[in-house]
Write a structure and sequence with these properties.
Blueprint lengths: L3 H4 L9 H15 L1 H12 L5 H5 L6 H13 L20 H4 L21 H7 L4 E5 L2 E3 L9 E4 L5 H7 L8 E5 L4 E5 L14 E3 L8 E3 L6 E5 L23 E4 L4 E8 L6 E6 L1 E3 L7 E5 L5 H9 L4 E7 L4 E5 L15 E3 L10 E3 L4 E6 L21 E8 L12 E8 L7 H6 L7 E12 L2 E9 L9 E2 L20 E2 L4 E10 L5 E12 L8 H10 L2 H14 L2 E3 L2 H13 L6 H9 L4 E3 L11 H4 L7
Antiparallel strand pairs: 1-8, 2-7, 3-5, 3-6, 4-5, 4-8, 9-10, 9-26, 10-19, 11-18, 12-17, 13-15, 13-16, 14-15, 14-18, 19-20, 20-21, 21-22, 22-25, 23-24, 25-26, 27-28
Helix pairs in contact: 12-13
């Protein structure tokens, strides 16, 4: 409140009565203008519903600033300057934004921002004017083809990234890499742009682009204006159906074995994941067969192997490359698919797939044999009561199995809401019935040395129905199943244990048997924070693959990827051996000096075009 006594100049005193009256009136009018303005606003303002406000949409910083100015000054009717705020259209011109500046404060169209009072209101209520797709901007149907682009660093969010290039005419697609706050604006040719926005660097393209789309790489997101959405894009992940998802994650089956339960979108059948790299046999020889560099997604590559007698397995790349492997006597004389036409010479790899070797740009899967998980090792199958497909992968907790073998076991997992019967030995020994409630995971059977183990699990009866879900954003760094869509479940962080029954038969001791009610504790390498506290947590969980998950996640967040899997394996082994005395900072130092990694392609040093920007680092550490 501005009192007239504090604003009236001393010179007004001792004036004539008329002058004094006039000046007093002016002074009172000036002093009271805030109250008068409030009165006018209350008379003219027709407040809308909360639904109206929620539809506010601003497409550029200029338009958002204009909205703030209007709300503060009360002198403009929004929604009438050539473009509708509610629909996110651009104003026709700068002149259009200056129109309708008469007195008063008039409510606009539905979704108008005229009721907003300050910049924070605009920021909280605006909706984004773009459509998101998973991955970097790339030529539709490819993983790596891109036009010339500009890179802007320290961009705080997708909206700011989109706005950065919203008014740049040659930008056809925008990508945002949240981990490093890096924003890319892409041209459709290899020769534009001639320059970049202030503070941004120029980078070479490798192809002229007919249509951009997100390439599916989970590290980044491609942003398109709402009116320019590519046909059949790689869709951004939807909110997952959380049915039975409480079971998803890593669980300690006992002190020797850890199980991962996760749900995928289709049945992988009798195939097992072997590792990153080209498939090889027991004698380190690679297999012959047929391949293509691109154009065959995971499920088609799997089906191609399943449809050919003698196929021992297949490998896939993130560029939809497919390699179908055969023993030397089983290679078809002619290509069995027009989409997989190229012959792999190999070097007489024979028998079952036993491991992987360079190149490391692919993931190898083998047909499960007798004694393998999914062959003689497991009995789990996908449940009939829903259309979800669950998998279980078993890890030796300390890196090797009882007799020194490395590797994992994988198979379908039975999941449902029908409580399993007590295991046979539990019935015979009178073990107390488990109080576990559904959903249940069952049919899990494996060997540790000469001991055969069978178990089932469910949720503790005290489990709440309101879960603390956490989406695993960086799963592409460590989860091989990302090429077939990855896990369809978030992690229920409040569910820290499962319960059920565990039966064992020790065949080395005349078939000694037993059965106990058990609790299976959750391990959390995929959700641990990437700092010293997260590192301590993962070390305390004493899980070899958990260390690897943490390291791969950290590499991705640093803008790196693994260049040499053999080197990486040695590094993980070294870190594992010294984990109890290894600090987080020391671990990062070991990682940086290992020589096992390379910069992610999208974050590599700039090349070509402009010598000044080409010599600059891609981003500031």
């Amino acid at each position: 409140h501005f009192g007239s006594s504090t604003l009236r100049p001393a010179a007004l005193i001792n004036k004539s009565p008329v002058a004094a009256s006039f000046t007093s009136t002016v002074a009172m009018t000036v002093a009271s203008w805030p109250l008068l303005l409030c009165f006018v606003l209350l008379q003219r303002w027709e407040p809308g519903s909360s639904e109206d406000v929620s539809q506010v949409e601003a497409t550029t910083p200029r338009l958002r600033a204009s909205a703030v100015a209007q709300a503060a000054a009360g002198t403009r009717q929004l929604g009438s300057h050539g473009g509708s705020v509610a629909t996110g259209e651009e104003p026709a011109s700068d002149e259009g934004e200056q129109a309708n500046t008469g007195g008063g404060y008039t409510a606009g169209q539905e979704g108008d921002v005229s009721a907003l009072q300050n910049d924070s209101d605009v920021a909280h209520m605006e909706t984004k004017a773009f459509v998101e797709q998973v991955g970097w901007c790339r030529q539709k149907g490819t993983k790596k083809q891109r036009g010339k682009f500009c890179q802007c660093d320290n961009v705080p969010g997708k909206q700011a990234c989109f706005d950065k290039f919203a008014d740049v005419p040659w930008v056809n697609c925008t990508s945002y890499f949240a981990v490093k706050e890096i924003c890319h604006g892409y041209s459709s040719t290899t020769f534009t742009p001639a320059d970049c926005p202030l503070g941004c660097s120029m980078h070479a393209g490798n192809a002229n682009i007919s249509e951009y789309a997100g390439n599916g790489i989970m590290a980044a997101v491609a942003l398109f204006p709402k009116a320019v959405v590519p046909s059949n894009p790689v869709e951004a992940p939807q909110e997952p159906d959380q049915q039975d998802c409480e079971l998803s994650g890593f669980w300690a089956m006992d002190e020797d074995v850890v199980a991962r339960f996760w749900r995928v979108s289709y049945d992988l059948g009798n195939y097992q994941y072997v590792g990153r790299g080209q498939c090889k046999d027991e004698g380190n020889r690679v297999f012959g067969g047929y391949f293509t560099d691109t154009g065959v997604p995971f499920n088609e590559c799997k089906d191609a192997c399943s449809g050919q007698a003698g196929c021992v397995g297949f490998a896939v790349t993130d560029n939809e490359g497919c390699y179908v492997n055969f023993g030397p006597d089983d290679i078809p004389m002619e290509p069995f698919s027009d989409k997989i036409p190229n012959e792999i010479d190999g070097d007489d790899g024979a028998g079952a797939i036993a491991g992987t070797t360079a190149p490391w740009d692919r993931h190898c899967y083998k047909v499960a044999g007798e004694g393998d998980a999914g062959g003689g090792g497991f009995e789990g199958t996908a449940p009939s009561e829903d259309e979800h497909y669950w998998r279980v992968m078993l890890f030796p907790r300390r890196g090797t199995w009882a007799y020194g073998d490395a590797g994992t076991l994988e198979a379908p997992l039975g999941v449902g809401n029908t409580k399993p019967q007590d295991l046979e030995q539990c019935q015979l020994s009178g073990t107390q019935e488990s109080d576990a409630v559904g959903p249940y995971a069952q049919g899990i059977s494996f060997w540790w040395g000469t001991s055969e183990v069978t178990l089932w699990t469910g949720l503790p009866p005290t489990t709440s129905e309101d879960h603390q879900w956490k989406k695993v954003e960086d799963a592409a760094a460590w989860d091989h199943s990302m090429l077939m869509g990855g896990s369809k479940c978030p992690v229920a962080q409040d569910v820290d244990s499962l319960m059920g029954q565990r039966e064992f038969t020790q065949h080395a001791l005349w078939g000694l048997r037993g059965c106990t009610a058990e609790s299976f504790v959750r391990l959390s390498p995929e959700t641990a924070t990437l700092d010293s506290l997260g590192w301590m947590k993962v070390v305390d969980e004493d899980f070899n693959f958990g260390i690897e998950v943490f390291i791969r996640r950290l590499l991705q967040h640093q803008g790196n990827s693994v260049a040499d899997e053999v080197c990486m394996r040695k590094l993980i082994d070294n870190l594992w051996e010294s984990r109890e005395t290894m600090s987080f900072e020391k671990m990062k130092s070991e990682l940086g000096g290992s020589g096992c990694m390379q910069k992610i392609e999208e974050l590599a040093a700039p090349t070509g075009g402009n010598e000044d920007t080409a010599s600059q680092p891609e981003f500031v550490p």
